[in-house]
C-alpha cells in the first residue's frame, strides 16, 4: 500500500496539489461549499491512479485543491461507501492521500437521519462520538502497522478544541447546532422501525452510512478531526413515514448553507 500511496501522491503533486493544510470530505447532497473556494486545480477521480470511482449518480467524483479563507484546502467532492461495493481500504484511501500530501486537519460532512426526537430535519449535529455498525474496520489488514499504530486509541476520536470552536461559532451566528452520537451502518437500505428503536437504545442521536471509516483512519494518521451531520429526515419509529432519497438530498441542500458558514468561519480561525 505504501507504494500505491506514493504513486497517487506523486501524481497529485504533479497536478499542483501543493501542501494542503486542511482536508474536507463533502457528503451526500453537500457540494455547494466548492462554490466558495478559489479553485486552483481539480481532478476527476477516474483520472487519479489507484483511486476508486464514485458510482452513485449524485456524487460528483472530483478532488479539488484551492484557497478558502486564506488556507490551502483539499476537498473530496463525492465520497465512497461500502454499499457501493468498495472495501474499507478503498473508502479510506483518499484520507491517506490527503495526509501524505500534507493536511493536518480533516473536516467531514454527511447527511444523516435524526434518531433523537428532539432533533429536526434541516438542523445540524456536531458529532461528538460514534458507533461503528458497519461490521468491519479499515485498519483490519495485513501490514497496517507500517502506516501507523495498529491498536488506535478511540477514546476521543473528534478533536475537542475544534468542536468547541464549532459550538462557539454556531452560538455567535445563531445557528442551531446539536451535539451527539453518530451511528454508521452499512446500508444502502434505510432502517426499519425496530432498527431505529435499537439505535436509540444504543445511544445514537443520528444515523448514516459513512464517515466512521474515514474518522478511524484519520485517527490512525494522527490528524485532527471534526464532523458535522446535516439532518435530512426524522427517524421516529412511532411516526415513521416512507422516505424518498431525492427528498433527503433536497433537504441536505436546503440545510447546507449553515454548514458552509460553520466550515468557513472555522477555517478562518484554524
Automatic annotation (TrEMBL):
InterPro entries: Nucleoside_phosphorylase_d (IPR000845), Nucleoside_phosphorylase_sf (IPR035994), Pur_Nuc_Pase_Ino/Guo-sp (IPR011270), Purine_phosphorylase (IPR011268). Keywords: Glycosyltransferase, Transferase. The purine nucleoside phosphorylases catalyze the phosphorolytic breakdown of the N-glycosidic bond in the beta-(deoxy)ribonucleoside molecules, with the formation of the corresponding free purine bases and pentose-1-phosphate. Belongs to the PNP/MTAP phosphorylase family. SUPFAM superfamilies: Purine and uridine phosphorylases. One of its GO terms (biological process) is nucleoside metabolic process. Gene3D superfamilies: Nucleoside phosphorylase domain. Residues 21-268 form the Nucleoside phosphorylase domain. It comes from Aestuariibaculum sediminum. GO terms for cellular component: cytoplasm. GO terms for molecular function: purine-nucleoside phosphorylase activity. NCBIfam families: PNPH, PNPH-PUNA-XAPA, PRK08202.1. CDD domains: PNP-EcPNPII_like (cd09009). The lineage of its organism: Bacteria, Pseudomonadati, Bacteroidota, Flavobacteriia, Flavobacteriales. PANTHER family: METHYLTHIOADENOSINE/PURINE NUCLEOSIDE PHOSPHORYLASE, PURINE NUCLEOSIDE PHOSPHORYLASE-RELATED. Pathway: Purine metabolism; purine nucleoside salvage. This is Purine nucleoside phosphorylase. It is an enzyme of class 2 (transferase). Its EC number is 2.4.2.1. It holds the Pfam family PNP_UDP_1.
